[in-house]
Predict the structure.
Amino acid sequence: MNLEISKMNLEIVVGKVEDGKVVAEKIIKEVEVKMATTILDLGFRHKEQIDIIGSIQEEYIALQANKLSEKYAKWEKCVGKTRKDSMHYGDYHSSLSDHKLKMQGHACRCGWHKKPSIHGEYGTNVHPDLIKMQGTLGAKMHYKEAEETLGKFSYQKRSVNNHVKIAEATNTVGSILNKIKLKEEVRANEDTGHLYMQVDGGHVKDKDKKKRSFEALIAGVFKESSYRESIKKNIPISNHVAASAINDGGEIINKFILDTAKKEGMTKSTEITAFCDGATNCWNIVNSLEAHCKSITKILDWYHIRQSYDRAKICVYQTMLSNLIHLSIKCGMVKLRKLSRS
Ligand SMILES: [Zn+2]
C-alpha cells in the first residue's frame, strides 16, 4: 500500500482570451492544499480574499481601460486615424480595492488631443457600489465610525473611505434622494381606518461652528395593528417616518408627512390620533393632514401634560400667595388707620 501523500496545489489564474485562444495568463494566487488543522486555515483569510479580488480587478480593469483608450484611436471630427500621445495614470476606486490605471492618450495633426480618464468618462472615479456603502453607513452612524467600519470591511485604510469623503458621498446621495422624494407621487394602497401619529422636534448643531443650531422635526405614522404586533412580539413598531429641517417654513416636512401617512394607508375616511410635545411647529405638521383625512384627535404627550400641570400648579400657588400678602397688607393698613384715629 502506498502511504505517500501527493502534493497538491491550487492556482487561481486569470487568462486573456482572444477569438477563443488564450493569449495571456497570470497566476493570481498559488497555495498548497492541506487539511485545515484549525478553522483559521479553512479557505482564504479575509485579507487574502481582498487581495485576490484586488489582483483580479487589476487585470480586468486594465483591459477595460485599453478599450476606453481605443475609442479615441479614431476621432469622428478628424480625418484618418489619430496618433498615440503620452501615457498617463489615473486613480480608480472600486468597492474593495484601489487601482492606478494606465491610460493611452491620443492626438491629431489638427491640434485635437485627448487624455481619457475614468472621472472624465463617467463623472466620478468611485464605483457606485462603494458610494452606496458610504452613503448607507454615513446615514446611520458618525462619519468617523463609518470610516472605521469600511476600513475593517476592506481590511485596509483607504483614502477614498476617509470621513470627509464619506460625508461628501452621504450628502450627495441625500440631496439626490431628497429631490426624488419631493417629486414622488404617493397613493394609499389600502384604506386604514385608524392611524397613530407621533411628532417630535429638536435643535441640531450646525457642522459650521459659526452658524446657529437649526430646528428639525421627525414624525412617525403607524397602524393600530403594527402597535399590537410590536407589543405581542416585543419588536419595534413597524412605521413610516418623515424627517426634515424646517428652515423652509415646513414645506418639505409637510410633503413628506403626507406621503408617509398615505404609505400607511391614510385616506379621506381615516381617523388619526396624534401625539406631540405641544410645540407650535409640531402641531403645524399634524394640522397639515387635516384636509386629507376624516378627523384628527390631538393629544399632548404624557410627559408634557405632567410638565404643564406642574407649571400651572406653581402659577396658582404664586397667585394665591401674592393675594394673601396683598390681603394682609390691606388689613394691617385698616388697623393702623383705626389706631391713629383713637
Ligand atoms: Zn484632427
Observations:
- Residues 129-183 form one domain.
- The chain has three domains: 9-74+82-112, 129-183, 194-300.
- Strands lie at 9-18, 21-32, 83-93, 98-107, 113-114, 194-204, 214-223, 240-245, 271-276, 295-300.
- The chain has a mean pLDDT of 89.
